[in-house]
């Protein structure tokens, strides 16, 4: 009974000894034992875990960090130019010491902190997973909204790999497009590390599964 379950579970693809704990912050991991997904079958194992390269996360956070101090830059510039507001009706010093300037700062920093959270949230939870049974694309657009698409391994027909721009070249990442047999589902993996290795890994798994199952009956 145990042997039958192992064969049906796709153990042609994995030796249990290959499973290992991986850093949950990683962008690319093979055979992770400590990562699980909702709806995962008892005999279904993760072969590959993928998310965007960390440099994408760092770059987006840096952009927000640049504008973090924008209110203080504006304040310093206005005071340096000694500019009065409303034709002299309200002096710049009076404005920057008023409750309105305090509210503007609170609103601005709240916006920036929310931006930091959204950037990290989307990077951390937007992932792609290859298991012994299927390929999964998990996208979280917000805390309350997510989209999960999946396709059986045998439905994967082709994978396109491209590298665009100097950033992807410098950091060894690329974009992958997975095409399914029906053509109705297309999976896009953007800015993933070592895209060529991911492509080869998925294609090798697909070939192994199809060879094991043999040709489909017409």
Question: What does this protein look like?
Answer:
The protein is α+β, with helices and mostly antiparallel strands. It has 2 domains: 2-52 and 126-213, Pleckstrin-homology domain (PH domain)/Phosphotyrosine-binding domain (PTB) (PH-domain like, Roll); 58-120, no CATH class. It contains 7 helices and 8 strands. The strands form 2 sheets. A 5-stranded antiparallel beta sheet has the order 1-2-3-4-5. A 3-stranded antiparallel beta sheet has the order 6-7-8. Strand 3 and strand 4 (134-142) form a beta hairpin. Helix 2 runs antiparallel to helix 5. The longest helix is centred in the middle third of the chain and has 27 residues, at 99-125. It is elongated, with a radius of gyration of 25 Å. 19% of the residues are buried. The model is unreliable at 1-10 (pLDDT under 50).
